[in-house]
Give the backbone structure.
Amino acid sequence: AQSVTQLGSHVSVSEGALVLLRCNYSSSVPPYLFWYVQYPNQGLQLLLKYTSAATLVKGINGFEAEFKKSETSFHLTKPSAHMSDAAEYFCAVSARSGNQFYFGTGTSLTVIP
Amino acid sequence: DSGVTQTPKHLITATGQRVTLRCSPRSGDLSVYWYQQSLDQGLQFLIQYYNGEERAKGNILERFSAQQFPDLHSELNLSSLELGDSALYFCASGRGGTGELFFGEGSRLTVL
């Protein structure tokens, strides 16, 4: 079975500071991993995905994530936070069959001017 | 625009009533997923359909049911509504394999 754990339901960073959102996964097989972002009153949008190619994955809006098998982690980072990054971020995992997706509980990112 | 269309966007109804939420997936996507998002429960997987057949079931109440039609659109039926059913209901579609899910903008249900 697959699952993801997002550490920290709320994260606050100053504008221009490093963004680090944590995600750990549990999977009996090598998984596919995803980060989604949800802006207020909108649906979820894909930021990036890992599907067993390069372990460092670059996404939209300057975000990237690194797949670390030894740590079962897929943390999301951005070197410099922007006010427009304030949103809810979800980590998700799916089995290689791609049939079921499991989402974390989400991390709300606040960017302080 | 994700290509996934959900209607209605907003719905206000009373306890005990029944509502139907509709989802049109992206062109070419055979899988449709339904999720419920509430403040205290986060994003909960309800049910998945693939090409008209139920593929996986999550935390879906017996009062809720869904189906996927031959044209691949899907409907989520919620009956005997309770106050706690107030939530944002998302539909997502995908093609399986390494593909990600594409989400609609959601249907916000308020039960009074």
Remarks:
- The mean pLDDT of chain A is 91.
- The radius of gyration of chain A is 13 Å.
- DSSP finds no helices and eleven strands in chain A.
- The CA atoms of residues 67 and 85 of chain A lie 22 Å apart.
